[in-house]
Amino acid sequence: MTGAMGSLLAQQSVSPSAGHWAIEVHGGAGIIQRSAMTPEGDAAYRASLAQAIGAGAKVLDQGGSSLDAVEAVIKVLEDDPLFNAGRGSVFTANGKNELDAAIMDGSNLEVGAVAGVTGTRHPISLARAVMEKSPHVMLIGTGADAFSVQSGLEQVDPGFFFTESRWQSLVSQLKKEGRPVPPRPTGTPPPKPVVPVAQIDESPNAHNYGTVGVVALDRLGNVAAGTSTGGLQGKMPGRVGDSPIIGAGTYASNQSCAVSATGSGEYFIRLGVAREVCNLVAFKGLSLQQAADKVIHIELETLHGDGGVIALSQDGQLAWSFNTPGMFRARQREDNKLQISIYNDEP
Ligand code: ASP
After folding, report:
1. Whose CA is nearest to atom 7 of ligand 1?
2. Contacts 24+ apart (CB under 8 A), 292-300
3. Is 211 a catalytic residue?
4. For 105-138, what is each residue's pLDDT tens digit?
5. Mean pLDDT over residues 170-194, rounded?
6. Could you identify the atom of ligand 1 that is nearest to the CA of residue 230?
């Protein structure tokens, strides 16, 4: 067989990593500097990443699907107040939490996404419910919240997502920018001093890191991707970032790659970052690392966007790339050592 069909079939059948799983996780990119991080903060982030990726490795090691692994890891990170997803999400300019998430199955291009949700403990599970139990690929706001109840997913009060450090970070950003500070949400514990784990840059152009994302490859050779976030701190109510936009912040296809992004979402949407990485692999013959680097260090930087991606392909390539001082990240292949990194001077 010759031509495009021949190479497509060859791509489908040749998988050097057949039978071996792999997984990569990010916990957001941004102004994350060694000099600004306390030793306790550094250790806490590494421990959280290890625990989260462990949940996914367990699923994959028991022969579970990449989709299940992605959801399992993100649920752990959504419950972890260190990250800007689920509990610990950043606040909108009017002091609310509006959460976005997406999940994609690379074996069949099935997708589920939600934006601006307010009452679901695990937005990633709501995204999965949209994929599996609705005829749609994306639900937003009140409709998504109602579908969550209807699907029997765990509901929480808005106060569940509240953390003192994110609140104080919002107040300080809004004051610095001369914007009105909303009243402290009712039902939250009285204000108390926060011991920061890191000095967070709150300048108007620095987004507050902590979005979470996962890409995984299972033993059947199927890839999947998922991303979950509170979005950008101080965002306008109703703003949606790249994370739930398929092709921008999240994408997965067995034919090319799986990607989860983090960074200034408006730029990632303009470039269709996640799909762009996969297209460079599928149609330009770039390695996964070359493709990720080209999109982040050339295309994104040309627009002055900041952030990064994690990516993985069916043939077992793993890549990450970011143009910020740090990106919380971890990766593991079957039978290989777990790698956890934070700063840009680490591999
Ligand atoms: N990309 C996310 C958004 O724009 C934020 C982040 O990754 O930090 O909503």
Report:
1. 262
2. 292/259, 292/319, 292/320, 292/321, 293/321, 295/271, 295/321, 296/321, 296/322, 296/323, 297/321, 297/323, 299/271, 299/273, 300/263, 300/267, 300/268, 300/271, 300/273
3. yes
4. 999 999 999 999 999 999 999 999 999 999 999 9
5. 88
6. 9
